[in-house]
From TrEMBL:
It is found in: Cell junction, Tight junction; Cell membrane. Claudins function as major constituents of the tight junction complexes that regulate the permeability of epithelia. This is Claudin. GO terms for cellular component: bicellular tight junction; plasma membrane. InterPro entries: Claudin, Claudin_CS, PMP22/EMP/MP20/Claudin. It is a multi-pass membrane protein. The chain crosses the membrane at residues 84-105, 117-139, 163-186. Keywords: Cell junction, Cell membrane, Membrane, Signal, Tight junction, Transmembrane, Transmembrane helix. It comes from the Eukaryota. Belongs to the claudin family. The keyword Transmembrane helix applies. One of its GO terms (molecular function) is structural molecule activity. The keyword DNA damage does not apply.
Length: 219
């Protein structure tokens, strides 16, 4: 019962991780630059994401521009696009597989099949968490290095936006959920190895028939 409750808790964490992963991939505020000017139509907030760049104006207007060209983007943005999409796909697979393998569901067949499915789903969550953690870390490193670079003008410097923090938190949720699922299955397998089922040995019919003979039958 405790293991089923722990798996359900991990599943909830994984759901938060999946939704956060998708939100971080689509949000345009991976890096933010606030530039307050004296003109009323001066842009006060500029945001850049993986797929589009958006601008907030002091008049309340909001405009976005899609990044159509892939080859013109920096390498870290191209890598972030690929790995974040991969993280979303892996986490979605993990949700589907663990739904079958969880103890509180009636899908997946016997306990061994459910245990294997649960372990496979946990591996998907771990891979998804790593795939989401790598681009957010790389993206944050590029933002900080550009911010500390004295040769870059102040108007071109940015700070990490909300999408980066969402990516970090989602990757953490997926990693924790994956570890919990894998640990619950490994613990069960170790218990089966340490306490193997007892085998009942029954005497063969030949031995029973031989035991029925007496020495006087041969005299």
């Amino acid at each position: 019962m405790a293991s089923a409750s722990l798996q359900f808790f991990a599943f909830i964490l994984a759901l938060f991780g999946v939704f956060g992963d998708i939100a971080a991939t689509l949000l345009p505020n991976w890096k933010v630059n606030a530039d307050v000017g004296s003109n009323i139509i001066t842009a006060i907030t500029q945001m850049q994401g993986l797929w589009m760049d958006c601008t907030w104006y002091s008049t309340g207007m909001f405009s976005c521009t899609l990044k159509y060209s892939i080859l013109s983007l920096p390498v870290y943005i191209q890598a972030a696009r690929t790995t974040m999409v991969l993280s979303c796909i892996l986490s979605a697979f993990g949700i589907c597989i663990t739904t079958v393998g969880m103890k509180c569901t009636k899908l997946g067949g016997d306990s061994d099949s459910k245990s294997h499915a649960c372990f496979a789903g946990g591996v998907c969550f771990i891979l998804a968490g790593i795939s989401g953690l790598v681009p957010t870390s790389w993206y944050t490193r590029e933002i900080i290095s550009n911010f500390l670079d004295q040769t870059i003008p102040e108007s071109s410097k940015h700070e990490p936006g909300g999408a980066v923090y969402t990516g970090f938190i989602s990757a953490g949720f997926l990693l924790i959920a994956g570890v919990i699922f894998c640990a619950s299955c490994i613990k069960k397998q170790q218990g089966a190895w340490i306490y193997p089922p007892k085998q009942h040995h029954f005497p063969s019919t030949e031995q029973e028939s031989n035991a029925g003979y007496n020495l006087k039958d041969y005299v």
